User: Which sequence fits this backbone?
């Protein structure tokens, strides 16, 4: 086999590793692409090892060599596969026959580790070392670790030098023989099965998170510190809090907040305690932390209960951070959690929440309105009224939903205005909102619109919405109004008039108006199909409390 | 075989089952039905490997079993079996068992009969070799002394590892003193090398802890505590990653001392109350310094806990004073043992005359429960042996020697570096194995007594460097 025979497959295999490094960083472990990448890489590597034997790669700063031949070369500073290994001291990497898919998967996971994001204090050698591979070996340049080239010689000379004045052994030998000797040592008791069982329990206990212990320690420091020293333990707590979030350990972070929420036993100055620990809560509410949590929420891996507990520890100062993250989230589930959080936090500071109505992102504004609806604080009406003219139809729709739940100054004029909105869906929502208010002025607006010029020209469904809403009010006056509409006749625009009468029939059906039956029976035979159909349905509804065909 | 995990499991099963059949064969004849069932289990699992690999070689190197050249990684549940089998191998000076072909129950019964009976002979290995000579597919190899595996090169590697760790620690502590933020990255690499060295050449690296340096006490002490802690952690069955973390936190356990003023640290006279008060704050300073490192990770969390707790005793005594006694972290309790042992055997500012290793161990035994964890101390005593490395001994041959390696199989019979002849004349040091017997079955050498080397001004460093 010539060099050329192996060079090409080796180059290709390095490319496979490079691609896998990128893929594994890009996709989460539960993504099919992730596992397929490892499977493909293993298939290629296994085939190579079977065909050509062990793969022994040597690393230089910008080159990878197979024997003396260059199989990879790059001068790139950022994306350089050779330098990636070289910079941490790797000089040789050997893949041996017998390599398993699991081992290669671990190797690829190690090289795809995001050092900047997940661990500045790691390097590739440590990651390979921890994995203790059987079929992947590497050679490290030991000089990488040498702190001081001359220290060893000096230290040895020093240690041996101490014996320069060592007395002649022969001279002291006699004294040594006469020495009564050290304490009699007992024979070592061997480790028993009971010891091992106890050790197993010990190791099991040890596998739990160490963060609660550390936070407990920090609280001890804080409690014992004098007024001039108590800021430092809180600084450390803040650091630990951030670390917990980075490591997806929200439970420990919440534990820290719980501890800080409770009374600090033995602390002399309550005001100082509150002020200092307040910094921890401020940090927990910061955009930085909420942003990090938002990213985790998007992965769907965070427990709802823990997140809710975290939110319960925060105060109104967290609202802006939460509003900010609301627009960044990618998943509905994550948005739901942030919305729920804002429903809780926003109640503590409505003003902070309504600031979100000015957010340039329509979906954020819509979510804020939804949150305001959940909070049900009537003081927000004036802000909602201002938002009723929002340029985005989806926002306007949400405002109208809110209006349907609140009545207050400015709501009726805003709803009246919305009845003329260019969007039919908005107009119909405004009608429904008026209906929900169930107030006389709202009813007045509906009736006046029905009687108004131009109403007849509205789309049938839109007209029908008015009559449905009106019917929901009930009462004799409404019934009479609808009966009048049912009897309306005209020689002109017969179809449009028939639509109006069909709407009235529909309304009377909803009302269950028995006095309308006689007239409806006649209209059942009307030439106009729509009118006859709606009359028939109304009769059935009145008689049987149901609508046939619906 | 499809995965490395399967190979790991099979290898562990083979060694573990071998331990089981050796143990049961000590109680019953190998042809007994009870033993035969266990043998069949061994044969079944062994033949899976033999068929796959054509042969199977179980070898013991240092403190580890290797199967066809690959180290057998054991878990806690196998620790007792592995430990037992290791002792049985070493008792017989047996280094390896080679299975050249598919093995049968009858083959194993024949082998076990030879294996059990040879331990009562003066030269057990020679006896076993003779009895297995004609066997169909099993042969044995003598225990290879580490010194046979290029002793000089290993010593070089070990010295380099040790002094580089000391030099690194000195560098780190000096950087901290001048307010530099340090990184754990390189510390991890230094400790990884120490762990590897310890796993491969435990007795050599362990021997290095005998070297003390009064002027650079803190640096040597930090490294020694790290080595002793890792060695103990390894006995507890910890994996490599945990050993690295343990070594790392042990290396930084006294980091808080870097901010203690030099006039206190190096005070030539007895410490007064104020001095002790300042010294007692070094655990707290340690925590703060660990937080000041370049970044904070899992190792930092553990390092901070150990820096804080390593002087708090299980009975609540020690320092810093605490209102409620926490359950001390496992690493803190390990480091506390290593710390006490190395401190007591070193010359320090506030205790100029160091104790001999055996005396220190005896004192530590008295502190069990109140100051030191009883279970961990038991493992520690098993680690260092009755005569710890660095103990000056007089042999019954009237030769002087220094214990150079413990003997797991028989703690009373360590390996001793002999430094004088029977007349007290200095000789070129050589290592005596105290388990060796003469033709009559009598031990060639035994320890008569231990002696305090400090009392006679004997510098042990030269025998370990």
Assistant:
């Amino acid at each position: 086999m010539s060099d050329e025979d192996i060079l090409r497959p080796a180059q290709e295999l390095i490319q496979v590793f490079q691609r896998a490094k990128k893929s594994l960083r890009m996709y989460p472990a539960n993504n099919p692409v992730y596992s397929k990448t490892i499977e493909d890489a293993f298939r290629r590597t296994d085939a190579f090892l079977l065909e050509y034997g062990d793969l022994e790669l040597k690393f230089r700063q910008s080159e990878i060599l197979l024997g003396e031949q260059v199989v990879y070369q790059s001068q790139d500073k950022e994306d350089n596969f050779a330098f990636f290994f070289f910079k941490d001291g790797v000089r040789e990497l050997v893949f041996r026959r017998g390599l398993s898919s699991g081992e290669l998967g671990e190797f690829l996971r190690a090289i795809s580790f995001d050092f900047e994001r997940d661990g500045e204090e790691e390097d590739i050698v440590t990651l390979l070392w921890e994995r203790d591979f059987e079929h992947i070996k590497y050679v490290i340049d030991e000089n990488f670790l040498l702190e001081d080239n001359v220290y060893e010689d000096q230290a040895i000379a020093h240690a041996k030098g101490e014996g320069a004045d060592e007395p002649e052994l022969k001279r002291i030998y006699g004294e040594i023989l006469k020495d009564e000797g050290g304490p009699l040592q007992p024979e070592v008791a061997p480790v028993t099965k009971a010891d091992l069982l106890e050790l197993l329990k010990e190791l099991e206990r040890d596998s739990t998170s160490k963060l609660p212990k550390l936070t407990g320690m920090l609280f001890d420091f804080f409690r014992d510190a004098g007024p001039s020293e108590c800021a430092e333990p809180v600084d450390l707590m803040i650091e630990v809090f951030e670390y917990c979030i980075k490591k997806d350990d929200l439970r420990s972070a919440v534990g820290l907040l719980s501890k800080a929420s409770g009374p600090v036993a033995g602390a002399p100055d309550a005001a100082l305690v509150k002020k200092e620990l307040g910094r921890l809560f401020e940090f927990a509410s910061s955009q930085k932390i909420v942003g990090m949590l938002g990213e985790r929420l998007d992965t769907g891996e965070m427990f709802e209960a823990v997140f809710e507990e975290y939110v319960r520890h925060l105060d109104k100062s967290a609202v802006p951070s939460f509003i900010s993250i609301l627009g960044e989230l990618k998943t509905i589930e994550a948005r739901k959690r942030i919305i729920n959080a804002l429903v809780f936090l926003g109640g503590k500071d409505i003003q902070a929440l309504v600031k979100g109505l000015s957010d340039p992102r329509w979906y954020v504004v819509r979510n804020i309105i939804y949150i305001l609806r959940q909070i049900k604080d009537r003081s927000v009406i004036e802000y909602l009224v201002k938002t009723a003219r929002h340029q985005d139809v989806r926002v306007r729709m949400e405002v109208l939903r809110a209006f349907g739940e609140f009545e207050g100054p400015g709501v009726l004029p805003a709803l009246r205005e919305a009845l003329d909105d260019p969007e039919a869906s908005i107009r119909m929502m405004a009608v429904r909102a008026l209906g929900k208010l169930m107030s006389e002025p709202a009813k007045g607006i509906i009736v006046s619109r029905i009687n108004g010029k131009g109403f007849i020209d509205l789309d049938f469904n839109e007209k029908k919405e008015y009559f449905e809403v009106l019917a929901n009010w009930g009462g004799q006056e409404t019934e009479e109004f609808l009966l009048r509409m049912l009897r309306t006749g005209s020689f002109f625009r017969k179809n449009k008039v028939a639509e109006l009468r069909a709407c009235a029939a529909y309304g009377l059906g909803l009302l269950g108006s028995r006095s309308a039956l006689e007239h409806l029976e006649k209209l059942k035979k009307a030439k106009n199909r729509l009118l006859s159909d709606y009359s028939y349905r109304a009769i059935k509804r009145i008689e049987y409390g149901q609508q046939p065909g619906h | 075989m499809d995965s490395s995990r399967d190979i790991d499991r099979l290898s562990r099963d083979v060694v573990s089952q071998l331990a089981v059949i050796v143990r049961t064969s000590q109680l019953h004849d190998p042809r007994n039905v009870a033993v035969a069932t266990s043998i069949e289990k061994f044969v079944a699992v062994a033949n899976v490997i033999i068929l796959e690999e054509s042969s199977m070689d179980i070898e013991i190197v240092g403190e580890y079993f290797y199967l066809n050249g690959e180290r057998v990684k054991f878990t806690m549940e196998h620790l007792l079996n592995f430990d037992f089998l290791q002792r049985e191998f070493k008792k017989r000076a047996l280094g390896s068992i080679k299975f050249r072909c598919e093995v049968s129950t009858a083959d194993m019964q024949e082998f076990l009969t030879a294996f059990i009976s040879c331990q009562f002979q003066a030269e057990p290995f020679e006896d076993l070799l003779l009895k297995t000579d004609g066997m169909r597919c099993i042969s044995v190899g003598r225990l290879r002394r580490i010194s046979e595996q290029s002793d000089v090169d290993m010593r070089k590697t070990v010295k380099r590892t040790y002094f580089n760790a000391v030099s690194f620690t000195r560098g780190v502590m000096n950087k901290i003193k001048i307010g530099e933020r340090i990184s754990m990255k390189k510390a991890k690499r230094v400790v990884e090398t120490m762990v590897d060295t310890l796993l491969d050449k435990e007795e050599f690296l362990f021997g290095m802890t005998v070297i003390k340096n009064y002027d650079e006490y803190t640096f040597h002490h930090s490294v020694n505590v790290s080595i002793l802690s890792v060695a103990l952690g390894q006995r507890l069955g910890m994996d490599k990653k945990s050993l690295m973390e343990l070594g790392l936190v042990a290396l930084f356990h006294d980091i808080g001392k870097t901010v203690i003023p030099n006039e206190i640290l190096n005070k030539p006279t007895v410490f007064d109350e104020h001095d002790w008060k300042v010294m007692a704050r070094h655990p707290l300073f340690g925590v703060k310094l660990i937080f000041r490192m370049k970044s904070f990770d899992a190792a930092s969390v553990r390092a901070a806990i150990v820096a804080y707790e390593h002087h708090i005793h299980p009975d609540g005594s020690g320092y810093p004073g605490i209102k409620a006694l926490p359950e001390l972290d496992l690493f803190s309790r390990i480091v506390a043992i290593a710390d006490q042992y190395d401190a007591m055997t070193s010359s320090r500012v506030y205790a100029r005359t160091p104790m001999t290793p055996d005396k220190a161990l005896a004192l530590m035994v008295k502190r069990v429960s109140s100051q030191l964890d009883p279970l961990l101390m038991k493992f520690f005593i098993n680690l260092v042996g009755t005569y710890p490395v660095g103990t000056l001994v007089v042999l019954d041959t009237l030769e002087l020697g220094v214990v150079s390696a413990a003997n797991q199989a028989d703690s009373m019979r360590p390996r001793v570096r002999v430094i004088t002849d029977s007349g007290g004349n200095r000789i070129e040091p050589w290592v005596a194995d105290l388990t060796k017997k003469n033709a009559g079955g009598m031990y060639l050498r035994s320890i008569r007594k231990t002696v305090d080397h400090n009392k006679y001004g004997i510098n042990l460093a030269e025998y370990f460097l």
User: Anything to note?
Assistant: Chain B has a mean pLDDT of 87. Chain B is about 50% helix and 10% strand. Residues 151-177 of chain B form the longest helix (27 residues).
